[in-house]
Amino acid sequence: MEDNNRNLILATVLSFLVILVWYTVFAPEPVSDQPSGQPIAEQGIGDQPLVPAGTPAATAPADLAEAPAAGEPVGRVPIQSEALAGSISLAGGRIDDLLLTRYQETQDAGSPDVRLLSPSSATADDRVNVNVTRPYYAVYGWTPGPGTDAAAVPNPATVWTLEDGQTLAPGQPVTLAWDNGAGQIFRRTFALDDNYLFTVSQSVENTGDAAFSAAPYGIIARHGRPVTENFFILHEGVVGMVDGTLIEMKYNAMTDMDRVEREGRAEIYEVSGNGWIGFTDKYWMTSLAPAPGQAFTAVVKYAEGADIYQTEARFPMQTVQPGTTLTADSYLFAGAKVWDVIRSYEENPGIQRFVDSIDWGWFHFLTKPIFRLLHWLHGIIGNMGWAIIALTFVLKTLVFPLARKSYISMAKMKELQPQMEEIKARTGEDRMKFQREVMELYKREKVNPAAGCLPILLQIPIFFSLYKVIFVTIELRHAPWFGWIQDLSAPDPSSLLNLYGLLPYGVPAQGTLLHSLTLPVLAIALGVSMWLQQRLNPTPTDPTQKMIFAWMPWIFMFMLGGFASGLVLYWITNNVITIIQQYTIMSLHGARPDLFGNIRASMPSRKRGDKPGKEGAGK
């Protein structure tokens, strides 16, 4: 069994090294979700975004429109649904106040709702304080055509009038209006579905005597760099789709863009028919989505002087003849990246590959089916913890043929142990001859010595794919299992320091290495299950291998104790199933593991009268 133990050690050490590097180098700093607050009833006008210039091909920002004095009150139109609460500012007709009422910052009683969008009302001092929500909003407007005065089109500071409706709610749209006094009346109608999709209809009615040209646009602006998880495997920043090609750009890449637009930087993408563009956080997203089939220009922009991160959807220039009306429809997604919700938007209204706004990562060919299976199991079971356990059984069933071959090979190697001992006695110190005759024995008996480590190596991509799913999908956020495990996306909160809740003492913050060293319950269960799995094989005679085997389960226990409890639960379940499979299959092939004998052999023993460090003393 020495070669089999060597293979097992190699695979285990490889797994440990990968996890160690991952945890120590790329582990995120614990941060809270977006700061939140209460809906804003009345707000003054602050800084404005950079609007497109006077021609559709131009990429330079126009001069900022003159705004009313800061702090001057303007009206607001309430937003209310089961999923959202907030308001639309009549200043600019912008959506800049939005709370996600289905999600709270923490699981504490009375925790405020997660705030997604905020008005540009914070002071300069506030914007350097990460605990204050920075301005983040969506605003729409029109770019004047050739020969059209910029004052003839509404800008981000224009104060609109509520023409129709009172509260924006599902089935209750509202319409804003603005008359430029030169023969054109602009209207902006907002409609909202039961979740997070706004339908925005911009129109201009030309009641004048001459033709009027303008180009509609939509902007999502973030003032200042937002607080992010800053984790290697997580994308936060710009996300979009350009005719089937996914676009991702982090905030630091936006500031490094070398394409200059006067005082800012920009990247421009021409979309022929299907696309969307916006900003994504870990769980939340705000995105502009023109109607399917509508050509537009997607722009990613950073205004260095104003420190504004911005995405835009610019539409082609249109001419409105006298007595006619021009209408441009588009969509705004502002909410949580719930998989079945955003997938439904792929079907209606037809936003292409919208589900790819979830950061599936490099192993998307594994993370997507794993999540879909987990989501399906959760729908049946109703509890995400038990769904993870059921998922583990399904995955182990899928790889069972490989595991079966591995355990059969291990059983055959155990049968060959007497012959290997004979070869060792015959070859003596000639290691080359020993290895050559052992390989001939394997070949003759059709035994693959590497088969023992294949199931363990196969667990590595599955482990990281499940880790990605648990880390990025909102369905796992604050998902309870039972008892003290009330958030499977967070580490096990229990700790030996307070005797697992019996003493009224605080413990180190979850997710830190110090907390994982305080032995959470799931971490202990993981270490014990790994130790029992090792005991299915005899203890190696080589002292180095024996030492590695002795320490490996407990090192893993401390390292993985700081991982999400859902992931640790998966690993524990996987170990238990592996123990049952290996014991059963090897027993059926006449090589039943001597579990208790191996446990006794792994324990340090000393005869009565022996002295420490004196082998044989007392004989």
Automatic annotation (TrEMBL):
<dbReference type="Pfam" id="PF14849">
    <property type="entry name" value="YidC_periplas"/>
</dbReference>
<keyword id="KW-0143">Chaperone</keyword>
<keyword id="KW-0472">Membrane</keyword>
<dbReference type="GO" id="GO:0015031">
    <property type="term" value="P:protein transport"/>
</dbReference>
<feature type="transmembrane region" description="Helical">
    <location>
        <begin position="7"/>
        <end position="26"/>
    </location>
</feature>
<dbReference type="InterPro" id="IPR028053">
    <property type="entry name" value="Membr_insert_YidC_N"/>
</dbReference>
<feature type="transmembrane region" description="Helical">
    <location>
        <begin position="453"/>
        <end position="474"/>
    </location>
</feature>
<dbReference type="InterPro" id="IPR001708">
    <property type="entry name" value="YidC/ALB3/OXA1/COX18"/>
</dbReference>
<keyword id="KW-0813">Transport</keyword>
<dbReference type="GO" id="GO:0032977">
    <property type="term" value="F:membrane insertase activity"/>
</dbReference>
<dbReference type="InterPro" id="IPR019998">
    <property type="entry name" value="Membr_insert_YidC"/>
</dbReference>
<dbReference type="Pfam" id="PF02096">
    <property type="entry name" value="60KD_IMP"/>
</dbReference>
<feature type="compositionally biased region" description="Basic and acidic residues">
    <location>
        <begin position="610"/>
        <end position="619"/>
    </location>
</feature>
<dbReference type="GO" id="GO:0051205">
    <property type="term" value="P:protein insertion into membrane"/>
</dbReference>
<comment type="function">
    <text>Required for the insertion and/or proper folding and/or complex formation of integral membrane proteins into the membrane. Involved in integration of membrane proteins that insert both dependently and independently of the Sec translocase complex, as well as at least some lipoproteins. Aids folding of multispanning membrane proteins.</text>
</comment>
<dbReference type="InterPro" id="IPR028055">
    <property type="entry name" value="YidC/Oxa/ALB_C"/>
</dbReference>
<feature type="region of interest" description="Disordered">
    <location>
        <begin position="599"/>
        <end position="619"/>
    </location>
</feature>
<dbReference type="GO" id="GO:0005886">
    <property type="term" value="C:plasma membrane"/>
</dbReference>
<feature type="transmembrane region" description="Helical">
    <location>
        <begin position="376"/>
        <end position="403"/>
    </location>
</feature>
<comment type="similarity">
    <text>Belongs to the OXA1/ALB3/YidC family. Type 1 subfamily.</text>
</comment>
<keyword id="KW-1133">Transmembrane helix</keyword>
<protein>
    <recommendedName>
        <fullName>Membrane protein insertase YidC</fullName>
    </recommendedName>
</protein>
<keyword id="KW-1003">Cell membrane</keyword>
<feature type="region of interest" description="Disordered">
    <location>
        <begin position="33"/>
        <end position="58"/>
    </location>
</feature>
<dbReference type="InterPro" id="IPR038221">
    <property type="entry name" value="YidC_periplasmic_sf"/>
</dbReference>
<dbReference type="InterPro" id="IPR047196">
    <property type="entry name" value="YidC_ALB_C"/>
</dbReference>
<keyword id="KW-0812">Transmembrane</keyword>
<feature type="transmembrane region" description="Helical">
    <location>
        <begin position="553"/>
        <end position="572"/>
    </location>
</feature>
<keyword id="KW-0653">Protein transport</keyword>
<comment type="subunit">
    <text>Interacts with the Sec translocase complex via SecD. Specifically interacts with transmembrane segments of nascent integral membrane proteins during membrane integration.</text>
</comment>
<feature type="domain" description="Membrane insertase YidC/Oxa/ALB C-terminal">
    <location>
        <begin position="384"/>
        <end position="586"/>
    </location>
</feature>
<feature type="compositionally biased region" description="Low complexity">
    <location>
        <begin position="49"/>
        <end position="58"/>
    </location>
</feature>
<feature type="domain" description="Membrane insertase YidC N-terminal">
    <location>
        <begin position="76"/>
        <end position="372"/>
    </location>
</feature>
